[in-house]
Structure prediction request, 522 residues.
Amino acid sequence: MTFEEYVRGRGPALVRLAVLLVGHRQLAEDLVQEVLARAYVRWERVVRADHPDLYLRRMLVNAHVSWWRRKSSHEAVGLPEREEAAPIMVDSEVAERDALWRVIRTLPRRQRAAVVLRYYEDLDDLAIAEVLDCSPVTVRTHVMRALATLRERLAEQRPVGSTR
Amino acid sequence: MTQLEQQIVATLRDRADDSVDVTLLLDAAQQQGAGYRRRRRALSVGGGAVLGVATVVAVLGAVVAAPRPDPARSLIGTGTDRSPSASASTPYVPVLRPPVQAGATPATVDPKVVGADPTLFHFDLADAALPPDALIQWTSVDGLERLTVQPDSNGALVQVQVSRISGLLDPMSGTTRSVSVGGRPGTLVMSGHDEYGQLRWQPVPGLWAQVQGPGAAADITRVAGLVSFDHVLRCVVPFRLTDVPAGARVQACSSVFEPRGATGSATVHIGQYAVTVELDRFATLPDPTTTVNGRPAKVRQYPGDGGAQILQVDIDERDSVLDLLAEGRYDPTTVLALAAGVVLVDGQPDGWPSPRAS
Prediction:
C-alpha cells in the first residue's frame, strides 16, 4: 500500500477521529496533517507493520497531547479551547447532543480517547488498548469513569423534574 | 447498549461526519513530510528521495532559464573550481563517526558546551552499537545533539539524543520504571509489547541523554551503557561554503555515514531565513533547467510547511547532487550566490572541514 493509497482511503477517517479528540475541525486537520507527514517520512516502516491503521491511530492519539500543548503555548489566540458558538436548536434531541458533546469535551484526554475509539471507531477493548498503549482493563476503567462523569454532569444540567 | 451510549454514538457521528478534502490533505502531508525529511537529513540510500519533492509550483523566471543564456550566471560567477566529488577518484573507507576534535572541552567537564556549537558532538557511541552496514547520522541542531542509526534502508531507527534541556528530547509516554546507567539513575519507558523503549538519564548534572529504539528493556539499557561523554567529535561535511553573507551563522550540522559513502549537510542562518546545503551521493539530477557555474542545475520554488515559499537549488555534480534549500524570507540572489560558492572537498571524512559561515 502506498502512502497515497492509504491517505485516500483512510485520511478522512483520521480527520474525523481527530475532530473528536481535538474538538476543533481546523486544528484536527492540522494534527492529522502533521501525523501523516511524520508517517510519510517513515512510510516503508509503517506499512511493514501488521496494521498501518493501528499505527496511525496510535500516532494520532499520542501526538495530540504534546502537539496540543505546543500549539496552545505558541499560539496565544485562544483557538484550541474556544467554545464554538451554540447552534440554533431545532429540537430537543439536537440540544441534548450538543450538551453531551460539550461534556465529552471536558473529559480527560485518555478517557475521551477511549470513548471515541469505542463509540465512534467501534473498536473493542483490546484494539483500544493497543492504540492507547495500555491494558484492556485500563481501557474499561477509562470508559467506565467517562460514562459516570457524563451521567453525572448531564444530570446536573437537566432541569428539575426531567425524567431522562 | 444503554441509552447514554446510544446518545454518545449519535453525538460523535454528528460531530465528526463532514466532508474531507483528501487531495488537499494528501498534498499537505507530502509536502510537510518532505520538509521533515529534509530538515532531519535522513538521507535515503540512493539519494533519490531528495528529488522526490512532489510539487513544483513556481519557477523563478529571473533565474531559471534555458541552459545557455542563464541570467543567474552573471550573479553567480564562474570562477569557482568545482572539484569532483570524493567518489570520483578516492576509494571510500567506511567509517562510523566523525573525527575527534582534539582539545575540545568534553561534556563531563562542562555540560554547558553541549549544543553550544552545532559543529561539535559531545558524546559518542561504542562500535558495538554501530553496525558497519548501517546508515549512521550525527546531527546537531538548536541545542540538541543526536545520533541516528538505521540498520538498513527499512530498518527501525535507534537514536541517542543529548541536550542540556530535557524538553528538547523526544517526549516519553507510558509506564516508567527505574534503571541504572553507569551508576546513574535513569527512567525507562517501554511501549507496545515491550518492543520499543526510551531510556532517559543524566550522565552528569545539567546534561540529559536519551536512548530510544526497538528492543527489550535489556537491549535499550545496554545501548545506553555504551554512550560516552568524555570526548568530542567534529561534525564534518564534504564541502566548503565560500560565499556566505556577513552575519550568517551555522545553525545545524550533520555528518552521515553509510557503507558505500559519506556525506553531510549544514544549515546556515542568514537574517530571516535559513539555507540547508547538502551533498546527496549517488544521485542524479533529471531534467536540469539551467546551469550554475557551468553545471546542469534545477531551481524550483514551491510552498513548504504553512504555505511559505521554499527555494530549492539542485546542482548536478556527476555522481552526486548538491542540494540547497532556502526557507524563510530568503533572497534568491543571495541563495544562488551561496550555491555557486560551494566547493566540494575530496578525500576521506577525517579530512573534511566543519561548516563555517565566515
Q: What stands out?
A: The longest strand of chain B covers residues 249-258. Residues 170 and 342 of chain B are 33 Å apart (CA to CA).
